[in-house]
Write a structure and sequence with these properties.
The protein has about 450 residues and is mostly beta strands. The protein has one helix at about 10-25, and strands spanning about 70-75, 80-85, 95-100, 115-120, 130-135, 140-145, 155-165, 170-180, 185-195, 195-200, 205-215, 220-225, 230-235, 245-250, 260-265, 270, 275, 280-290, 295-300, 305-310, 320-325, 330, 335, 340-345, 350-355, 365-370, 375-380, 385, 395-400, 410-420, 425-430, 440-445. The strands form nine sheets. A four-stranded antiparallel β-sheet has the order 1-32-31-30. The protein has a four-stranded antiparallel β-sheet with strand order 2-3-4-5. The chain has a four-stranded antiparallel β-sheet with strand order 6-7-8-9, with no helix packed on it.
Length: about 450
């Protein structure tokens, strides 16, 4: 069903080599790394062999594309995590990772630990094009988006609540959005609001950002659409959103529809339609056309928890994933056990199906992606599950860490994207070791159906 692979988990010399590569690349594009035989590194792609699946593939599974799985790791003595993924021009993979000192997590400090952000671009085949490393302070909610059009732009967003960051354009503070060229040169940056939680790019070099503007009275969500030159095209403001609101996921369709998902506590009126009229809170999925007008909205009333991701497929199918506390009533389906969920809607907003995927160990969130041929993939903990377009289970697989030098290793997924006619790219962290001395590296992996 799914072919998997891995590189070594942890390893001081490998992590230091990767960190050194990133430092050298921080000021601009770098040459493609040498082939593995000449200069092995944790960032070298490696074809991998398949592993047994936990379930046999269903008879309606799509034909597998002919591609070779690949994997990369990136890390140092600090705790490194894959924070954001996107697919850009030509199927390129855009990746942002975050490094946090172990001492920030109440663990013993180690020599060389840093706070660091690495933004990188990989060709569809897994070869790294460039990587840029930025020293950071306490940045949160790091995300990346990529234009699939001719300009191949890259967008980085996140929050700098305490100290400004500098990505080559001066101070970026609060909720920031930075546009880079396809080669990684910074072009412009904007303050989205007090916070920004999600971004998605279009084929014309523009981007949509979902964040919040804070006042003494409220934290008001807002959706802002930017043109390629950074000019604001339109803004949707969710006035009336109350405490407990968390609109934190956005996606763009090929036709320019922006889809927002999250938890909303209202009442909130958008373009004449009121959501959460009772003020009890629940999940919402809202779609806005290319001009920012509401085209449809769906509610899951009375449920708490969080939405982690939203994805839009080539045919407009929407997949939303997260964790629920309470009943999830979606169309003709009721999920009554709480925990991880994935639900889908048609391009017109009609509720389709909802499922509760298996998470496996070390879950830190549930994410979903609609594949180019229609299936929906869900990653949670160390488990990747695939469903057919009609919701039929295609199978599940455990994602194992790479070579485990300590004999005790774990892995958790944090983000997932589907690539055109290639497969799925998944990222997160993998730990090598036990107790409080484990080393955590970020991983990036292509998994093929």
């Amino acid at each position: 069903l799914l072919g998997l692979g891995g590189t070594a988990c942890g390893g001081a010399s490998a992590a230091e080599a990767e960190a050194g590569d990133a430092r050298a690349e921080a000021q601009g594009p770098v040459p493609t790394p040498a082939p593995e035989a000449a200069a092995p590194s944790p960032g070298t792609q490696a074809p991998t062999t398949g592993a047994p699946t936990s379930e046999a593939p269903a008879s309606n599974a799509p034909k597998a594309p002919v591609v070779s799985p690949w994997t990369h790791t990136l890390g140092g003595p600090q705790d490194d995590t894959g924070a954001g993924l996107a697919v850009g021009r030509g199927g390129d993979v855009l990746w942002v990772t975050s490094g946090t000192p172990r001492s920030d997590e109440d663990r013993e400090q180690v020599d060389g630990e840093r706070r660091v952000l690495t933004l990188s671009r990989y060709a569809a085949g897994g070869k790294r094009a460039w990587a840029k490393e930025f020293e950071r302070n306490r940045l949160t909610d790091l995300r990346v988006a990529g234009s699939t059009g001719t300009d191949g732009a890259v967008f980085l967003s996140g929050n700098a609540p305490l100290y400004p960051a500098d990505f080559g354009l001066g101070e970026a503070q609060d909720g920031f959005l930075v546009k880079f060229s396809a080669a990684g040169a910074p072009e412009w940056q904007r303050r989205v609001g007090q916070k920004v939680y999600a971004v998605a790019a279009d084929a014309a070099g523009g981007v949509v950002a979902l964040g919040e503007e804070w006042t003494t009275e409220a934290h008001t969500p807002q959706l802002v659409r930017y043109a390629a030159d950074g000019a604001v095209r339109w803004t949707q403001t969710f006035e009336g959103a109350a405490e407990g609101t968390s609109l934190a996921a956005v996606a763009l369709s090929a036709t320019g529809t922006s889809v927002v998902a999250g938890r909303l506590v209202g009442p909130v009126t958008v373009d004449g339609r009121t959501f959460d009229a009772e003020g009890t809170g629940g999940f919402v999925v809202l779609a806005f056309d290319a001009d920012g007008a509401l085209t449809w909205g769906q509610e899951v009333p009375g449920v708490s928890g969080r939405v982690v991701s939203v994805s839009v497929g080539a045919n407009g199918t929407v997949a939303v994933a997260g964790e629920a506390v309470g009943l999830v009533v979606w169309g003709e389906t009721t999920l009554d056990e709480g925990g991880p969920f994935v639900l889908t809607a048609s391009a017109e907003g009609q509720a389709q199906w909802a499922k509760q995927p298996t998470c496996g160990a070390t879950s830190v969130g549930t994410v979903a992606a609609v594949e180019s041929t229609g299936p929906v993939a869900v990653a949670c903990g160390n488990t990747l599950t695939r469903y057919a377009a009609d919701g039929a289970l295609l199978g599940a697989r455990t994602l194992a860490p790479g070579t485990c030098t300590s004999g005790t290793c774990s892995l958790a997924t944090t983000t997932l994207v589907a690539t055109p006619d290639q497969g799925l790219v998944v990222s997160g962290w993998q730990r090598d070791g036990a107790g409080a001395t484990w080393n955590q590296d970020a991983f990036l992996r292509l998994v093929t159906p």
